Amino acid sequence: MQKLPGNFETYDETRKAGFLKVKELKESGKRVIGTFCSYVPCEIIYAADAVPCGLCASSEEPIPEAESVLPRNLCPLIKASYGFALTDKCPYFYYSDLIVGETTCDGKKKMFELLNEIKETYVLKLPNSRDYPEALKEWRSEIIRFKEKLEDFYGITITEDKIREAIRMKNKEREVMTEYLSLGKLYPAAISGYEMGSRTDAAGFSFDIEERCKTFAARTEELKQYWEEHIKGTTSDRPRLLVTGCPNMGVRDKIIKAVEELGADCVVIDTCNGIRTQLDKVEETGDVYDALAKKYLNVTCSVMSPNQPRFEEMGRLIDEFRVDGVIEVILQACHTFNIESYNVKRYVTEEKGLPYLGLETDYSQADKGQIATRLGAFLEMLG
């Protein structure tokens, strides 16, 4: 890829800068709620005049301490997240008034029990399937219970008008983010997957949603203009890749950055910290709880069974982004993604006729060389 204009702070730099921001928020009296998952309806949090703060950890640093309580053969995201809370090394956890979990996997469910001993943790009960008749009704009721929990916790009333305002605000952000993440559709690529991942993950530490929209809109226009002036009309022999699977912020350097340095372009990141959660907006008319339930139940995470919408969405992305191959990132002991990877491989290779590479890994650097070798061999196969 040609050198693109401008520079951007790394995820770690922005995360550290956010420490001061969250401290200032709390000192100003702002409510802060820690979250772990894209199934959490953040509109309810904004309607409570609070800000959501992502707590999914991406560093192996606190994992040894976490393993004094949690089993070693557990997902690194769970261990790292719990480890930061246990060691009191995460300002975002420290300044959160309440933690919101969700029943997306057995490991997280049991971890939340332990987390509740450190700070009050409320767990949303997510349906295991979106296909049975009562699923939407149950999830709608769970969103209402979440709203009532925040009302009781803060001693406030959350009105439907406030929820509608939050829905419009988040939909605007989704539009901006989708346009930014869709830069990968351009040929040759107008953006690196490493920048997309770093910027979108780091955005959670800015807290001001209007500021985030302005920043991403400006970067989108900058890259579009540069592409029009310097890249459009040129050719590229760099394979175009779709990255799917688990959240990749803890392994972005050894997979996404590494494969791009080897000569490919990760043009679309189909994960919960990528484009997956940005595509669908919340309906702005009608019943607010119905609208939120429909939007958030349609997140195509592997925890849903069956999960046909994931393959339908992946197929559209493969076509729209003109993808040459697919890499799936599977975090160690993430059983739902690991088992579903069989069907992902079958879909990619048989239905779409593309090469597929599955990489099971954790947050350590022990397999960095092995992964680089496998990535290099995958690119050779792509030609």
Please count the beta strands (DSSP E, at least 2 residues each): 8
Structural class: alpha/beta
Treating each run of at least 4 consecutive H or I residues as one helix, how many helices? Answer: 15
Question: What is the spatial order of strands in the main beta sheet?
Answer: 2-1-3-4
Mean pLDDT value: 95
What is the N-to-C succession of helices and strands? Answer: HEHEHHHEHEHHHHEHEHHEHEH
Rg over CA atoms: 20 Å
Any idea what the shape is? globular
Rounded to the nearest angstrom, the distance between the terminal CA atoms is: 16 Å
Instruction: Tell me the quaternary state.
Output: single chain
Largest sheet: 4 strands, parallel
What share of residues are in beta strands? 5-15%
Which keywords apply here?
single chain, alpha/beta, 50% helix, 383 residues, 4-stranded parallel sheet
Itemize the secondary structure elements and their pairings.
Layout lengths: L10 H17 L3 E5 L6 H6 L2 E5 L8 H4 L9 H12 L3 H5 L2 E5 L3 H10 L5 E4 L10 H20 L5 H22 L11 H10 L6 H23 L8 E6 L7 H9 L3 E6 L17 H10 L10 H13 L4 E7 L3 H17 L4 E6 L6 H15 L1
Parallel strand pairs: 1-2, 1-3, 3-4, 5-6, 5-7, 7-8
Summarize this structure briefly.
The chain is an alpha/beta fold and 383 residues long.
Task: Tell me about this structure.
It is a single chain. This protein is of the alpha/beta class and 383 residues long. The chain has 15 helices and eight strands. The chain has helices spanning 11-27, 42-47, 63-66, 76-87, 91-95, 106-115, 135-154, 160-181, 193-202, 209-231, 253-261, 288-297, 308-320, 335-351, 368-382, and strands spanning 31-35, 50-54, 98-102, 121-124, 240-245, 265-270, 325-331, 356-361. The strands form two sheets. It has a four-stranded parallel beta sheet with strand order 2-1-3-4, with helices on both faces. Strands 6-5-7-8 form a four-stranded parallel beta sheet, sandwiched between helices. α11 links the parallel β5 (240-245) and β6. The radius of gyration is 20 Å and the shape is globular. The two termini are 16 Å apart. The model has no long low-confidence stretch (mean pLDDT 95).
